[in-house]
Specification:
binds zinc ion, mainly alpha, single chain, about 0% strand, about 55% helix
């Protein structure tokens, strides 16, 4: 699994695709970022949410005990997408399909990134297709390196700082790419 850096950067790029106004001037970037901080923050949060399965492990003293199980499945992503969308709709009645796709994309990006990450512990990968299949699956070729995280003491190592640096460099181009897509999209895709 990538660290919150990799997942956060991917989430941020999806957030930009969703929330960045078309034609926003680069000179007013700080102002636009401030205006769109809620959806951008939500995107980063959702892109990291499947790793909530570390919490019971942290509480019971075995960091990885519950990691890479049901929160890393298509079934969980669909369930949470529905839940978040219903809350969003209760808060903003104009919430529609665009918001559902946004939430799904943020959550699903986590699974895809983990699928592309080197995994040193059996079972390798994630139960991506649960409830349709409980088999673990992993990409034939990894993109992200493996962090060391057998326990808390190992989490804070130079190796993991290096891993986060690599994740940052791999995902960095997604940010200008998302901004570029917002510039070239036809005006009909503009948010009302
Ligand atoms: Zn994960």
């Amino acid at each position: 699994m990538p660290s919150p850096v990799g997942h956060g950067m991917i989430g941020l790029s999806i957030g930009l695709l969703y929330a960045w106004p078309r034609g926003a001037r680069i000179q007013r970037m700080t102002e636009t970022l401030k205006q769109q901080r809620v959806p951008l923050f939500l995107a980063v949060l959702l892109a990291n949410l499947p790793d909530v399965d570390y919490v019971p492990g942290i509480l019971t003293g075995d960091l990885n005990a519950y990691h890479h199980q049901y929160t890393h499945t298509l079934g969980w992503v669909l369930l949470v997408t529905g839940g978040v969308w219903l809350i969003w709709r209760a808060w903003r009645p104009e919430t529609g399909m665009r918001e559902a796709v946004f939430v799904f994309a943020c959550l699903m990006s986590h699974l895809v990134a983990d699928w592309f990450t080197d995994d040193g512990a059996y079972p390798f990968g994630i139960m991506l297709w649960w409830p349709f299949s409980a088999d673990y699956t992993i990409a034939p070729q990894h993109l992200f390196p493996r962090p060391i995280k057998e326990d808390w003491a190992e989490v804070f190592t130079w190796h993991n700082v290096r891993v986060m640096g690599i994740e940052f460099l791999i995902t960095l181009p997604l940010i200008p790419l998302a901004l570029m897509v917002k510039r070239i999209l036809p005006s009909s895709s503009r948010r009302p």
